[in-house]
Write a structure and sequence with these properties.
There is one protein chain. The protein is α+β, with helices and mostly antiparallel strands. Strands 2-1-5-4-3 form a 5-stranded mixed beta sheet. Helix 5 crosses helix 6 and helix 7 packs across helix 8. The two termini are about 80 Å apart.
C-alpha cells in the first residue's frame, strides 16, 4: 500500500454543495471587520473632540476663576478661598499674562516641573487626535498646563491641572461610546447581512442548487430553473441559465433520439442490404427480357438498386452521420434533373405541371450522386407541399427547376406553387428533425440537402418573397491549378 492511501481526501464530492463555510458565513465574517473599521473611524474623531471640549471646559472654568481673582484687590483673597476656587475648577494653578507681565492668580500644591504643555490656540485636528490618544495610553497622574485665550486685555490664560481626572472621563466616554457603537454596529451589520442575504446570497444559492440538480439529471425538464422577474445581473443570470438548460435538455433529448435512431438504422440497413442484393439479382434477370418497355426501365431500376446498395454499404462501413467526401467532376445537369423527375414519379403525374428552364449545355462541378440526392429531396418536398394544398386548377400546381451560370458558380433553383413554409419552420429550416409540419415528414430532407451542398463548398437558402417555396443552390467550381492546366496542354 502506498503512503497516499492512508491520507484522507479533502475534495468536495462533485454535485454536492460545500458544507464548511458557505457564502453566508463568508459574508458574516466580512461584515465583522467592516463594522469594526467603521466604529474605529467614528471613535477616533469622537474621542479627539471630547478631549478638546474638556480642555476648553477647563479653560472656561479657569477664565471664570481668573475674573474673580483679578477683580479683587491685590492680596485681598485669602489662601483658603483661593484653594477652594482651584478645587472647584479642578486646577492647581491659574495664571494670566498681560503685556510683559505674567501674574499667578492662584496656586496650590504646584509640582516642581510641568509634564506637558497644551496650547489650544493653534491646535489642529491632527494635534487633537494625537494628543487625545497619547493621553489615553499614558499612566500615572501627570500634570499638564493648558494655554488658551484670555479675557479682554490679556494675551493668554493658562491653568495647571492633573491628567488623571481628564483621562478617567475619557475612559468613561470611550466605554459609553463603545457600548452605543457596538449596539448600532450590531444592528447595522444585522440589517446589512439580512439585506445582502435576501438580495444576493439566497438567489446565488438557488442558482447553485439548480446547477447541481441539473447536473444530476440533465435530461429532465423538471430540473430547469424558473427565472424570477428581477431586472439586475442576477435576474439576467437566472434567465440565461434557464435558456441554457432548456437548450441542453433539447439537445440531449435529440442526441438520445439520434443514438436510438442510428442503432435502428444500422439494423435496418444490414437487412435492407440483403434484400436489395436479392432485388438486384432479379433486376439482372429482367434485363434479359426482350420487351421494349422492360429494356427501357430495367437499366434505371438497376442503377437505383446499385445506388441504394452502395449507400447502405457506406452507412454500415462508416458508422457515422457525416456524408462521404464528394467525388466531383463536370457533369451536365439536364440528365440529372430528368432522372430526378422520373424517380420522384412526376413524369406520369398529370396533376402537377413540371417546368424546366435550364441554360443550354449547363454543367456543374459536383458529385452526380450527391447532386441527385439534393434535387430529389427538394423535389419530393415540393410535391408533398402541393399534395397537402390541392387546387382546383391543375395548371396552378407547378414545380419549376431552373439553372444558370454566374461566372464560376452554378445556380440551381427548385420552386413550387404550394402554401410555402410557416415562420416557425424557417427558424430551424436546415436542422435535422425540424420538419415543416406536413404529415409523414421526417425533417431530414432539407438537412441532408444542406449537408451535401456544404460539402461542395456551396450554399443553399430559402428565397424570400416568392409564391410557394423557392430554394436556391449555389455550387462554385473548384479552383484550377495553373500547373495542371500546363500539363494538360503539354499532353495535348
Amino acid at each position: 500500500m502506498s503512503v497516499t492511501d492512508d491520507q484522507p481526501t479533502t475534495e468536495t464530492p462533485r454535485g454536492t454543495l460545500p458544507r464548511r463555510l458557505g457564502l453566508s458565513g463568508k459574508l458574516f465574517l466580512l461584515t465583522i471587520p467592516l463594522v469594526a473599521i467603521a466604529c474605529l473611524l467614528i471613535y477616533v474623531p469622537a474621542i479627539a473632540n471630547f478631549w478638546t471640549n474638556r480642555l476648553n471646559d477647563r479653560l472656561a472654568a479657569a477664565n471664570t476663576a481668573a475674573l474673580v481673582l483679578d477683580a479683587a484687590p491685590l492680596g485681598m483673597v485669602p489662601d483658603s478661598l483661593s484653594q477652594q476656587i482651584l478645587t472647584s475648577i479642578g486646577a492647581r494653578a491659574v495664571a494670566i499674562k498681560m503685556g510683559q507681565q505674567r501674574r499667578l492668580l492662584a496656586s496650590a500644591n504646584l509640582p516642581a516641573a510641568i509634564d506637558h504643555d497644551i496650547d489650544t490656540r493653534a491646535m489642529t485636528a491632527w494635534d487633537a487626535i494625537t494628543g487625545s490618544l497619547q493621553m489615553l495610553l499614558e499612566s500615572g497622574n501627570q500634570t499638564i498646563r493648558i494655554i488658551g485665550p484670555a479675557p479682554a486685555g490679556a494675551q493668554f490664560l493658562e491653568t495647571v491641572v492633573d491628567e488623571r481626572p481628564l483621562r478617567q472621563s475619557m475612559y468613561r466616554f470611550s466605554r459609553n461610546l463603545l457600548l452605543v457603537g457596538l449596539g448600532i454596529g450590531v444592528l447595522t451589520a444585522s440589517l446589512v447581512y439580512i439585506a445582502l442575504h435576501f438580495l444576493f446570497v439566497r438567489p446565488m444559492r438557488r442558482l447553485t442548487a439548480s446547477m447541481v440538480g441539473f447536473h444530476e439529471d440533465p435530461e429532465s425538464a423538471a430540473r430547469i430553473i424558473v427565472p424570477s422577474q428581477r431586472g439586475d445581473e442576477i435576474g439576467v443570470a437566472e434567465r440565461e441559465l434557464s435558456a441554457m438548460q432548456r437548450d441542453l435538455v433539447s439537445m440531449l433529448n435529440q442526441k438520445s433520439r439520434l443514438a436510438a435512431l442510428g442503432l435502428a438504422v444500422s439494423k435496418i440497413n444490414h437487412d435492407l442490404r440483403n434484400l436489395l442484393a436479392s432485388s438486384q439479382l432479379l433486376s439482372d434477370q429482367l434485363a434479359t427480357v426482350p420487351d421494349p418497355r422492360v429494356q427501357r426501365f430495367a437499366p434505371k431500376l438497376m442503377r437505383s438498386l446499385e445506388r441504394a446498395i452502395a449507400f447502405c454499404q457506406s452507412t454500415l462501413s462508416y458508422g457515422r452521420a457525416q456524408e462521404a467526401a464528394p467525388d466531383r467532376r463536370m457533369i451536365p445537369i439536364e440528365p440529372v434533373v430528368a432522372e430526378v423527375r422520373e424517380t420522384a414519379g412526376l413524369a406520369s403525374d398529370a396533376s402537377i405541371t413540371w417546368i424546366t428552364a435550364i441554360e443550354r449545355g449547363l454543367s456543374v462541378d459536383a458529385d452526380p450522386d450527391h447532386l441527385f440526392r439534393v434535387l430529389l429531396n427538394l423535389v419530393r418536398n415540393a410535391a408533398q407541399a402541393l399534395e397537402t394544398h390541392p387546387k382546383n386548377d391543375p395548371a396552378s400546381m407547378q414545380i419549376r427547376v431552373t439553372g444558370r451560370r454566374e461566372g464560376a458558380v452554378a445556380i440551381l433553383e427548385v420552386s413550387d406553387t404550394g402554401p410555402g413554409l410557416p415562420q416557425k419552420s424557417r427558424e430551424h429550416l436546415f436542422e435535422a428533425f425540424q420538419s415543416s409540419g406536413r404529415p409523414g415528414g421526417s425533417g431530414l430532407g432539407l438537412a441532408i440537402a444542406a449537408e451535401l451542398v456544404r460539402a461542395h463548398g456551396g450554399e443553399i437558402h430559402l428565397v424570400e418573397g416568392t409564391i410557394g417555396a423557392t430554394f436556391r443552390i449555389a455550387i462554385p467550381d473548384r479552383p484550377v491549378e495553373l500547373t495542371t492546366v500546363r500539363n494538360e496542354r503539354a499532353r495535348a
